[in-house]
Amino acid sequence: MQHGISRRTWVQMMAGVALAGTRVGAFQGARRDRVVIAGGGIIGANIAYRLARRGAAVTLLERSAPGTGTTANSFAWINAKKQPRAYHTLSQFGIEAWRVLDQETKGELPIVWGGSLEWITDATLASRIVEVNRQYASWGYPLRPLDAAQMAALEPAARFDGLRYGVHAELEASVDPQGATEVIVAHAKAAGARVVHPATVTGLDLTGGRLRGVRTTTGDIAADVLVIACGNDTPALAKLAGIDVPLTRSAGILVHTTPQPSTLSRLLLSPLGQIKQKRNGRFVTGADFGNTANDDTSIARGEQFLQRMAAVLPAMGKMPVEKLTLGLRVLPKDGFPIVGFADGHPDIYVTAMHSGMTLGPLVGRLAATEILDGVEVDLLAPYRLSRFAAGTAR
Ligand SMILES: Cc1cc2nc3c(=O)[nH]c(=O)nc-3n(C[C@H](O)[C@H](O)[C@H](O)COP(=O)(O)OP(=O)(O)OC[C@H]3O[C@@H](n4cnc5c(N)ncnc54)[C@H](O)[C@@H]3O)c2cc1C
Q1: pLDDT of res. 326
Q2: What separation in angstroms does the CA of 150 have from each of 167, 265, 304?
Q3: Using one digit for the tens of pLDDT, what is the confidence trace for 77-136?
Q4: Mean pLDDT within 203-223
């Protein structure tokens, strides 16, 4: 591996995580290898892939086509700049899980490694970010401060005028979210998963208080476990089993260009907004990490935005806009992921998270461990749905 920990260390770490987990008594002896997954976004795809590789009988059902939900509209920056420390650590494992997946899929993933370059021109903000980054670095996350000349040496096409603080986060990456999901689904199929789309899960057979199967638009399917990975529709399906999944609305707009000659080697986090170039040559850029109130997705708005971004990447001023996307983040009410079996439902596994691009391959691995091995992985303990019921949500 070029960056980070070796594959062997990773495997050892993950084995440690699983062993540190608690055995789930309710499961012992119960059959759990017929798993239906509702939702073929980045989360459902990764869970299907891991379960299939471990020999489970997996059926992945997707209402539309794989990767066309929130996943398609994601900026898909893979990073661990997260607080608090437990969430940061989870995200660092998330980055490493992409590396393992990239090796397993032999370079087929449309992923761009090389890290991110971030720079700040405002003095007050710069001193705040320096402090936060020192903390991340102390948690083992390499963040190398660079001056404008060093930044320009890495990305000659960009301008770093007025830079007060610049930093290279070398572990980070970006991915084409829909393309990656398609690759993962193809590998899930190759490992034996049955993938059906379009197919919508419309009902649950809970005869006798336990899951017997699901009703779908393509017929009934017997199941020992249902994984709900329906993104913003997770609450609707979970509700059929009386499970409440509290999400909040958060929209984000991105501008996509037509394919361009190779210009950038890594992701840019500029004072005006973030920019990446995908492996297929298309640029993706946006400025709003929060909830946007303006849902205008006109080409004119995109052109205006590219003119603005030309101050940091001059070539952007001449790039044709292909489309704008308005994506609805899958955002649990407290901002943190929801992963795991719902309380009182040892056969219904619920997922909903923002940062699903960073966490997808890791969640696939950990969910497969929890579903097939009957353990609760310690790393996921802060992210159970029960925190909302108990009033302990942060
Ligand atoms: C603007 C924006 C920027 C983002 N940037 C980043 C980022 O930089 N880094 C990062 O890590 N994350 C980012 N995210 C978040 C990330 O994209 C999401 O967390 C992730 O895509 C969620 O994936 P998912 O599989 O849970 O949901 P989805 O991709 O929405 O997949 C759910 C799927 O379930 C299907 N479905 C729904 N109901 C049913 C049913 N009843 N039966 C069958 N199928 C069903 C849907 O058709 C859909 O395809 C961003 C999101 C947005 C919107």
Answers
A1: 94
A2: 10, 14, 30
A3: 999 999 999 999 999 999 999 999 999 999 999 999 999 999 999 999 999 999 999 999
A4: 97
Q: pLDDT higher for 57 or 1?
A: 57
Q: Is the CB of 44 under 6 A from ligand 1?
A: yes
Tell me what pLDDT residue 295 has. Answer: 85
Residue bearing the CA closest to ligand 1, atom 47? 63
Residue 311 has pLDDT above 80, yes or no: yes
Residues in contact with 134: Cβ distance below 8 Å, sequence separation at least 6, in sequence order: none
Q: How far is the CA of 207 from the centre of ligand 1 (A)?
A: 31
254 Cβ inside 6 Å of ligand 1: yes
Report whether residue 195 contacts ligand 1, using a CB cutoff of 6 Å.
Answer: no
What gap in Å lies between CA 387 and CA 142, rounded to an integer?
32
Cα separation, 186 vs 145, in Å, equals 39
Atom of ligand 1 nearest to the CA of 252: 1
Q: Where does the pLDDT of residue 65 fall: very low under 50, low under 70, confident under 90, or very high at 90 and above?
A: very high
Determine the distance separating the centroid of ligand 1 and the alpha carbon of 224, expressed in angstroms: 25
Give 238 Cα–ligand 1 centroid separation in angstroms: 16
> Secondary structure of the chain: what % helix, strand, coil (to 5)?
35, 25, 40
95 lines ligand 1 (CB under 6 A): no
- Residue 292 burial class via C-beta count within 10 angstroms: exposed 0-12, middle 13-18, buried 19 and up: middle
90-to-142, 190, 289, 379 alpha-carbon distances in Å? 16, 28, 20, 7
How much is the pLDDT for 292? 72
Q: What is the pLDDT of residue 26?
A: 47
Nearest CA to ligand 1 atom 48: 69
Q: Whose CA is nearest to atom 13 of ligand 1?
A: 355
Catalogue all structural domains in the chain, each as residue range(s) with its CATH number: 7-75+177-246+333-389 (3.50.50.60), 113-173+249-332 (3.30.9.10)
